């Protein structure tokens, strides 16, 4: 059906390599990708959540990105709901956008720079002990991979609109630049 490019791996023991935001966005565009999904796990939830508090951030002005975000939330909640654990989440968990102070520009650099429908997946809360324990299991990681796969297949083969859309509350905390940590080695990029 297609190909997947992994832009960050563990590398040699003790190493931390990262392909920067600009490189990842350019790679998706130049490869003619149908979509770009940045896979992450969240931290600092608002509190307990009834069911998986999975989130996606989509490109504010791109209806295809919004649809992909909704499909991904649906599939993550479907897969993760099979696990009996105390869940965490934000009050506005679901498919949403985050804007800069101008109210028009995507907050996250990968979404601003992408030339194809793109989303950021925040599948589980690594800061939640129960979800961190799930993430350590092969079964949960497989469920996560399957959720992404199903969402992508639906995205390219159907007109399903997705669901789980929410209106985000205003966030004032900075999440950082998105640039690599000082410990990361970033391969040369043109």
Describe this structure in words.
There is one protein chain. 32% of the residues lie in helices and 14% in strands. It has helices at 21-30, 63-80, 109-113, 129-135, 138-157; strands spanning 36-42, 47-49, 55-58, 87-89, 95-96, 118-125. The longest helix has 20 residues, at 138-157.
Name a few traits of the molecule:
190 residues, 14% strand, globular, four-stranded mixed β-sheet, single chain, 5 helices, alpha/beta, two-stranded antiparallel ribbon, 6 strands, Aminopeptidase
Would you give the CATH topology? Answer: Aminopeptidase
Rg over C-alpha atoms, rounded to the nearest angstrom: 16 Å
Q: What is the H/E order?
A: HEEEHEEHEHH
Shape: globular
Helix residue percentage: 25-40%
Arrangement of strands in the largest sheet: 1-6-3-5
CA(first)-CA(last) distance: 29 Å
Continuous helix count = 5
SSE map:
Layout: H1 21-30, E1 36-42, E2 47-49, E3 55-58, H2 63-80, E4 87-89, E5 95-96, H3 109-113, E6 118-125, H4 129-135, H5 138-157
Parallel strand pairs: 1-6, 3-5
Antiparallel strand pairs: 2-4, 3-6
Helix pairs in contact: 2-5
Concise description?
The chain is an alpha/beta fold and 190 residues long.
């Amino acid at each position: 059906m297609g190909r997947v490019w992994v832009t960050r791996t563990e590398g040699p023991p003790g190493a931390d390599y990262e392909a920067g935001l600009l490189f990842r966005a350019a790679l998706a565009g130049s490869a003619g990708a149908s979509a770009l999904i940045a896979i992450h796990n969240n931290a600092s939830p608002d509190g307990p959540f009834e069911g998986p508090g999975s989130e996606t951030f989509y490109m504010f002005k791109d209806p295809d990105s919004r649809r992909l975000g909704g499909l991904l939330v649906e599939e993550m909640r479907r897969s993760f709901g099979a696990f009996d654990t105390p869940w965490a989440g934000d009050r506005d968990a679901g498919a949403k956008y985050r804007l800069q102070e101008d109210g028009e520009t995507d907050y996250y650099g990968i979404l601003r720079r992408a030339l194809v429908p793109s989303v950021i997946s925040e599948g589980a809360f690594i800061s939640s002990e129960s979800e961190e324990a799930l993430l350590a299991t092969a079964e949960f990681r497989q469920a996560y991979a399957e959720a992404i796969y199903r969402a992508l297949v639906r995205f390219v083969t159907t007109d399903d609109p997705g669901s789980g859309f929410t209106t985000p509350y205003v966030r004032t905390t900075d999440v950082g630049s998105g640039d690599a940590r000082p410990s990361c080695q970033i391969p040369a990029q043109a």
